[in-house]
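Pair request: fold both.
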Amino acid sequence: MHGKKDGFMSRQDVKGENSKNARRKSAALAGERKNEHLSSRALVYDYLQSQMKQGALLPGSVLDLKAISQKLGISSTPLRDSLIRLEAEGYLTIHPRSKVVINTLELADFPFLYEIMGGLEYTVIAASMEAYTPEIVAEMRRLNAEMKEAILGGDMSVYDSTHYAFHEIFFEVSPNIFAKRILTPIKNRLWDFPRKNFVQDWYLAAVTEHGLIVDAIEARSREKLMHVLKELHWDFKYNERHIRKVYNLG
């Protein structure tokens, strides 16, 4: 029989215990490597995203992947994973032979992007309109008031964060995760790159339109919602002159 005898372990028991310890160590090391990989991936993602938002990486520029790896002290694997995520979110395009280019935003892109934004936001809100509670409506009005205050104070960083949070509420209320997956890269492309010029009138008009969106939701009026989203807020022709100024598109 195998096992303990007079307080001693047999050779087979010792081997079994050593094997267990080896598996524990291996699992612990694997966990550490996984955490290190996830940490490196987040580091790369945050770095590249901040560089784009600050204008250090401009639309159309080609990334120097070797320089980024050396600067951050990371391997090619977390860098690749972060690039794949950023491509999925609309920030950049990965070309053959490891060429990675920051996406540009041309005037010709806006009619299509605005049409998608208006159509899908209307669909998402209208389908879940009855789920908007008084508390949610109040939160939307609070965010809109913060946006106006930020615009008047010239604090576009606060405006951007509250603006994003306002539109994100639509997807917190709606169960339509597929619409969110479609719209997230479009929103990132429209909002996360630095705008060239500050046109206060346009941003204040957007605040007014946000108020109309909330009014339509509170009134449970899909007709009013369609008007403000498709004929004002996300209508390219209605916004074209401001788009040209803000994005410096001539």
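--- second member of the pair ---
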Amino acid sequence: MEEIQSEVITWKKDENEKEEAEAQVEIWKYIFGFADQAVVKCAIELGIAEAIEKHGKPMSLLELSSTLGCNPSYLNRIMRFLIHRKIFKTISTNHENYPYYVQTPLSLTSSTTGDLKTNLVEKSYSLHRFNNWWKKNNRILHDWGDEECIQILKKCKEAIPNDNGRVIIVEAVIEEGGNHKYKDVGLVLDMVMMAHTNYGKERTLKEWEYVIKMAGFKGCTVKSINAVQCVILAFC
């Protein structure tokens, strides 16, 4: 009987944790629900769909950024978000290892439907409306570009023992594959960072490993928690 009660308690605890995690995801979606419209508005104003259509075949990141006249690093992050939303998709070719962008029925609709374009542009919320809120709720490292992050982490490393020192970082880690429950939120936050900072961004695991090792740490471990952020442990 006691074993059954213990199993029930454990099951309830697991269910509560699962529900709390799902609730956090939904709250983030409500807070940043404007981001989808803002990014689609950006894509329309850049003319991404039209550029791919005129190109007449799958288009690489460098080809697209050259055609649009915009920074390939920023464009890559925008396209990553739009692909996750299934507005565009990528395909691999026999000649190159990196992906090429192609249209979907959704992007074709956005490029040909005048009323849709007008409504999205006129009704998209301004990211700047949330500027004051964001400044009060931001973190540290994601506010900065890689070079600044490396310098900050170097200063942290100077303040800890060289033999067994650790630096704990609590930041989002964007999943590169699959569909992790917090990936959607991480991509939205990355778009917000692009709008509110000069060089800030949410990072993938590879990007975190890069700045941490460049700062002089031997490596890092990442522990997922029931939150958008992860616990990243950089060690000497």
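Observation on the second member. The chain has two domains: 34-124, 131-235.
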